[in-house]
Amino acid sequence: MSLRELKVCLLGDTGVGKSSIVWRFVEDSFDPNINPTIGASFMTKTVQYQNELHKFLIWDTAGQERFRALAPMYYRGSAAAIIVYDITKEESFQTLKNWVKELRQHGPPNIVVAIAGNKCDLSDAREVSEKDAKDYADSIHAIFVETSAKNAININEVFIQISQRIPVIDADGSAVKGFKLRRQPSESTRERTCC
Amino acid sequence: MLMISPRMASGMQEKQYTPSLLSFFIYNPKFGPREGEEEKKILFYHPIEIEKNEKIRNVGLCEAIVQFTRTFCPTKPAKSLHTQKNRQFFHEPEENFWMVMIVRNPMVEKPNKDGKPPTVEYQEEEIIDSVYGSVLQQCYSMYKLFNGTFSRAFEAGGVELLTQKLEKFFYRYLQTLHLQSCDLLDVFGGISFFPLDKMTYLKIQSFVNRVEESLSLIKYTAFLYNDQLIWSGLEQEDMRILYKYLTTSLFPRHTEPELAGRDSPLRPEVAGNLLHYGRFLTGPANLKDPDAKFRFPRIFVNTEDSYEELHLIVYKAMSAAVCFMVNSAVDLSREFCEQLDSMVGPHLTLLASDICEQYNVNRRISGPEKEPQFKFIYFNHMNLAEKSTIHMRKTASVSLTSVHPDLMKILGDINCDFARVDEDEEIIVKAMTDYWVVGKKSDQRELYVILNQKNANLIEVNEEVKRLCATQFNNIFFLD
Amino acid sequence: MDPNSQQSGNMEEVKIFDPSILPPCLDQIDLAYSDSDVLSENHCVNEDHRMPSDPEGLLDSADPTSEESNQPQEPSSTDMQKLDIDDDRPLCAGGSETDSGKASEDSALVDNGQDDSSEFVVTVLARGKMEEQGMGMKGASSPLCDTPLGPPSHRNEDVTAESWRQHRKHVFVLSEAGKPIYSRYGSEEALSSTMGVMMALVSFVQSGDNIIRSVYSDEHTVVFMQRGPLVLVSVSSSRQSEQQLRNELLYVYNQIVSMLTQASITRIFEHKKNYDLRRLLAGSEKILDGLLDLVDSDPSLLLCAVHCLPLASSLRDSLSQILQKAITPNLVFSILIAKNQLLTIVQEKMVIDDARLEPADLHLLLNLIGASSAFQAGEIWTPICLPSFNPDCYFYAYISYLDPPECTVCLVLLSTDKEAFYSVAECKRKIEEAMQAQNALNAISKAHSYSVSQVGVSDLRHFMYKPFDVPDNHRQLTQFTSPEMEAPYGSEEEQTRLLDLYRDMHSRIHSTSRPLKLIYHVAERETLLAWVTSKFELYTCFSPLVTKTCAINAITKLLRWIKKEEDRLFIRYPPKYSTTPNPSKSSRDGH
Fold it and tell me: What residues does the FUZ/MON1/HPS1 first Longin domain cover (chain C) (predicted)?
């Protein structure tokens, strides 16, 4: 079985649950008192996808403002970015939109974007409707899932969908480049094909 | 006060400035609670030349500091504020009446080359809070001794009377503060007791009893010899402040005329009465002169309960001094004074020479004292007895100590450490100069010994102090 | 390379360090001021939404030019919120006033000079308005104000309760503008009035050409310290000396610098006096909380020395060698920690030539790691500034535990190259392999602190020993050794009490005006001896009935025992390596 390494980074506001999602994915556990990430944390997890082994090289970045400017170091060269927001906090969804803009302007052009609305177990305190988020994700051709790291809902889903969308490597070992390499202008509507 | 210490060979000198009084004020926030009324809060302010707004600001800062500390402990607010240049001490002797003393930190002025102005370096760790805090408290005690409480004055005559009294008293009293030489003894505010044998003590006691019986007007008596207390009928706290007044103010003003030289202007006082050496230190200076007016100072005692105002009669014969306190409602006439003089004069004179003789006898018996070899300070919280072989002269104007001021500060530090706990403790330190300081606290008594034995070790120092305690203090201090 | 430049702010000459001195966060701030970047502008608005009790935020984004004004600030307790917005006062005077009487005074404030405003402030304070308004509860009742981050530890404590007052030590950090930044107990919002008062006191004394140092009352000591644009205040009932409390505040300040760098902090506040530093420190409160817990419970901060795990010197040497071999360009420090004590530290030769890693920096680093131990299976890569080493630039720290899931052995590799993660991670793998080959982890797990009984002196209960005369003294990391605290110091309360006693003696011995050589203190529950010579500093604790002779003999025995065991107790010869500096691959390249 062939092994593929997929570099994935998690972005999003502080406290939305990025580390919890990764923790759930890699260790299948949950710590309600998890500390805020400092800098960024690197973990790997290998899963089988169809007849391949996908080794996810996961960069869980700190969402605190003081680490913002480090983000490019992690999303640069990433095959996928999971942008996480908290469904009970509208501001975190706004931050998410800012991240999308940033990725568009500065991120790798081929990057797969997944939007994860975390803490879906707290639907009583919901501030971001699933529909609104889904519409937005569709408009930018991003994966969209509502997750709960706490209750282990849809965590693997995210990574499976990323596996699905990562470009196939053709015979000569180079990835099929399905996009134009020029940077996307920030204000124009994009014809963004799915990564 | 400025002290020059020649330090540099180049001829340029560092100037050392000792702590000095920057300002002193008394206020009551209740007297000016509203906007625009701030000035009304201020009951006394020194120096008087300070501009009104600045006075208000300074008072405001104190209030703010006190309020701020109440955030964390409502019942025990600020006692002092430390800044780079000065220290401020706060004392609330009566509810809502605040006294503040601001002392400038000692500083060193270092000359600069090329005509640049000298750099001033403030020494911020020199002043010990407990020492100057005690000085401030004593300011109040002294005021109260001669004027009664603030609240009574306010009740009697409003703000006007109170401010008058404060002005009159503090204007003079502040001039007597010598902040550059305050130390541990100010924390104790103790009383030096005159060592007496039982016989002589009984003689004195019976003397006092007889006088009190004959002159029924006398409410309280105190007997001193050589600036040291022998007997007192007053409450301890009152005697404490009265003692301070007598030994630092009254007595130094009246040196013995009989010891004065033949040509001394004091001489005439003695003339005429060769029956005894007694005379009034307060009241009539010369009984012979019928027109001379006199009055006795008024003092206030027992202010917590019975609140008594008394005449203070101080009568002296040779080295013995007696204080008689009479209810101030009584009008003390010349006749009364003459009666007192003729009754007390001869007796006191005899008693004084008795004491003197006995004292000399005792000294001969006990032999050359080991005392002078030991530099120590002793204080007993229960009877306020204090003894120091370190201080050569302690008056209001100067306190000469035979040890370096830094060592006295170390004593102050140890005293602060002792004050933190109730239990008996012992603290021994070796200073950078290799002097040893031993502090012992046992059962309400404190003893501090300074040893200049640079090469001694802990065990040897312990032995030395043991010896001192055995001879001087009858082993009342627990020793290992 | 000019070693002196390491300490000066002259960044151009510093080759071996990350020339991208611009700390990450500063990019963000600069962007916030220009209107061109949509991302950060939106981000600003988001932040303001998050702090609805801070009205200035709204005006802030509305009128960015107002930031340029340098009007001096005189916040008062009651009018904290209004005076906060000093830059925007013309816009808000007469606006949302809670006390109508204040409106006119506020505009008067604007017109008059600094002196009058401070006079006003002081009279306002003096009237005890603060008390009337309920001591800083403003903002706390706002339903919108809840801490969006982290578990609700003591952040939501009721600051009017007696229990809040009873805390042993409060620490507050605020900006020169009086804006709250951090409070150990209670939320900054609830305490903004109190912090306003503190700032007013600082300013007031300053306006008299003086500097406020401390306030003493029977139960508390309040210590003020200003560092650049930050004001730190400690309110303590621990009865420690002012100097010690101030050193603790310095640790807090330096921990903040370790996260942001001093250059950033200065620059941010120069640019905008009103800046809310909580934006950058959000989520880091736990780190500061942890530091303050350490300050109380760990003597290494008091002694300014590092505690090593006792280890056979052969094992320590082999570990050092493993670290020495696993290097990569731009790696400057390799540190191995077990059970929160140092195993070994290897330093890059050139870097350490004249400078050295200060224990204080190592404490800050260890605290940071301790507060971020959540993700123990991962490898962390984070910027960190070492303030004593260089307060204006970042290192990049690789942090990983070598023994999951117990996670007691931690490897820290510091690089000057922010892109170096993968090569540094490779070093870790080499280290791991080599350690496995030697079964090192097993040996380390057996190592532990020793018991005082090993010394073989009956009356001795505990001690702390810090040597000065060590090989290569000026290059050495200052260390100390100390046994486990055992009965009667088994409980946390007793341990704190013993440390307090040590702290008292430490402050007397190291007094700036009247230091001492020796203190022997006989108290009811123990007898203590503290001793400083040119060769060492020693603190010992005996049972209370020990005689002086016994105590002296005990110490002689102890010193002999330490000498015998020194190879095991200390890192005697700190190893070095050399990594050829690469021109750093930093953000200069852009992306």
Answer: 169-291
Entry pTM: 0.83
Residue C588 contacts A where some CB pair is shorter than 8 Å: no
Q: What is the pLDDT of residues B382-425, one digit of tens each?
A: 999 999 998 876 555 566 788 889 999 999 999 999 999 999 99
Residues B122 and B147 in one domain: yes
Q: Is residue B88 part of a domain?
A: yes
Q: Which domain holds residue B297?
A: 198-366
Domain assignment present for residue B191? The answer is no
Tokens of A139: 């408009």
**Is C375's CB within 8 Å of A43's CB?**
yes
Q: Which residues of B touch C514 (CB under 8 A)?
A: 125, 406, 409-410, 413, 431-432
Count of Cβ atoms closer than 10 Å to residue B431 Cβ: 18
Strand pairing of C460-467 and C536-542?
antiparallel
User: In this predicted structure, what is the pLDDT of residue A194?
Assistant: 36
The enclosing domain of B468 has a CATH number of 3.30.450
Closest to B79 (Cβ–Cβ): which among C126, C216, C552? C216
CA distance, residue B81 to nearest chain C CA (Å): 4
Put simply, the answer to whether A35 touches C286 (Cβ < 8 Å) is: yes
Look at the domain C452-569 and name its fold: Beta-Lactamase (3.30.450)
Contacts of C50 in chain A (CB under 8 A): 91
Q: Is residue B189 part of a domain?
A: no
Answer with the residue of higher pLDDT: B158 or A194: B158
CB contacts, 8 Å: A105 with chain C: 39
- State how many domains chain B has: 3
Domain with residue B311: its CATH number is: 3.30.450.30
Question: Is the pLDDT reported for residue B278 higher than 90?
Answer: no
| DSSP string for residues in C390-456 | -TTS-EEEEEEESSTTT--EEEEEEES-TT-HHHHHHHHHHHHHHHHHTTHHHHHHH--PPPGGGG-
Using the 3D structure, point to which of B322, B339, B366 is the last residue of a domain.
B366
Contacts of A186 in chain C (CB under 8 A): 38
Residues composing chain C: 591
Q: Which two tokens stand for residue B180?
A: 């550059």
Nearest CA in chain C to A93: C46
Task: Please give the full DSSP string across B305-372, using - where no structure is assigned.
Answer: TT-EEEEEEEEEETTEEEEEEEETTS---HHHHHHHHHHHHHHHHHHHHHHHHHHHHHHHHH-S-SGG
Cβ pair C77, C120 in contact under 8 A: no
Residues of C in contact with A22 (CB under 8 A): 378
Fold of C306-447+577-585: Beta-Lactamase (3.30.450)
- Nearest CB to C383; choose among A26, A60, A70: A70
pLDDT value of position C190: 86
**Whether pLDDT at B93 is above 90:** yes
Domain C162-298 shares a fold with domain C452-569? yes
- Tell me if C260 and A66 make a contact (CB, 8 A cut-off): yes
Domain limits of chain C? 162-298, 306-447+577-585, 452-569
The domain C162-298 having CATH identifier 3.30.450.70: the answer here is yes
Nearest CA in chain B to C237: B72
Determine the pLDDT at residue B393: 62
* Cβ–Cβ gap C514/B60 under 8 Å: no
Structure letter (DSSP) for residue B34 = S
**CATH number of B50's domain:** 3.30.450.70
Weakly modelled stretches of chain C, pLDDT under 70: 1-154, 351-355, 373-377, 472-475, 580-591
Residue B262, burial from CB neighbour count under 10 angstroms (0-12, 13-18, 19+): exposed
Instruction: Express each pLDDT in A160-183 by its tens digit.
Output: 999 999 876 544 445 544 333 334
Q: Which of B129, B156, B182 marks a domain boundary?
A: B182
Please report whether residue B187 resides in a domain. Answer: no
Judged on CB neighbours under 10 Å (0-12, 13-18, 19+), C448 is middle
